[in-house]
Structure formats: structure tokens, C-alpha cells
Amino acid sequence: MKTGKDSVVIGNVPPNSEVGEGSVVIGATDANGNTIINQPMAVGRGAKAGKNSISIGAYASAGIADTTNKTPEKRWHERSARHIVITILCGLVVTYLTYYFGWS
Fold first, then answer.
1. In the chain, where are the structural domains located?
2. Which member of 1, 38, 66, 74 lies 3.0 to 4.6 Å from 78 by CB, making a disulfide possible if both were Cys?
3. 3-state class of 94 per DSSP?
4. Residue 92 CB contacts under 8 Å (≥ 6 apart), including other chains
5. Nearest CA-CA partner of 23 in 59, 67, 72
6. Who's near 13: CB < 8 A, 6+ residues apart?
7. Are 48 and 37 in contact (CB under 8 A)?
8. Are 14 and 3 spatial neighbours (Cβ–Cβ below 8 Å)?
9. Phi, psi angle pair for 43, to nearest 5°
10. From the centroid of its chain, how far is CA 6?
């Protein structure tokens, strides 16, 4: 079997198979040809899995919190005065244009 860098092969896979770089191949895991995955695991390049989760594939994730946005959005009174003034002015312009052109 030829396997590429960071590839994962689980179960019964034909020995003449070629598995590409970063690929995940899961074959039968029991005598009846079934694939049974019943344990928590992360399989694949950069895969992450939380407790009691299964994650399969490159950069796949399951059962873990998304921490990409670490800074929560500020409430209106915590924002800068400039931001608040611009927001109010935009609202007034939209209101004027709606009134002037009769959009509704």
C-alpha cells in the first residue's frame, strides 16, 4: 500500500491501494464488512475532537467550542463616541431619504 504524507488508513483496505497526501481512508472494521467507529477520535491532518466526539477529515472538528472570535462585540455604550455619532447620522440620512423619495 502506498500512503502519502499525513494520510490515515483504518480498517480493511485493499493492499494495492494508493492513498494520497492528507487523505483519510476507512475500510471495514469487522468480518461482515461493516465500519464500526464507537470510540472518540480525531482522524486526519489537523483534526480535533472533544470528549465523546468523532472527527474525520483534514482540519475537521467536532465537540469543541469555536474560539475563532475571542473578542466579544462591545455594547453600544462601550463603543467610541465617534462610532455612535456615525451610526446616528447614518440613521438620520436613511430616514430623510425614505421621507424625501417616499420609499416604504
1. 1-63, 74-104
2. 74
3. helix
4. none
5. 59
6. 1, 19, 25, 27
7. no
8. no
9. -125, 120
10. 20
pTM of the model: 0.53
Identify the CA nearest to 25 among candidates 49, 52, 48, 6.
6
**48 near 33, Cβ under 8 Å?**
no
Closest CA to 24 of 51, 53, 54: 54
Q: In the structure grid, which three cell numbers stand for residue 103, read together?
A: 420609499
Helix and strand element counts for the chain (H, E)? 1, 8
C-alpha span between 80 and 78 (Å, rounded): 7
Q: HSE on the CB side for 4, CA within 13 Å?
A: 10
Residue 76, all three cell numbers: 453600544
pLDDT per residue as tens digits for the range 59-79: 888 988 766 666 677 777 777
What pLDDT score does 67 carry? 65
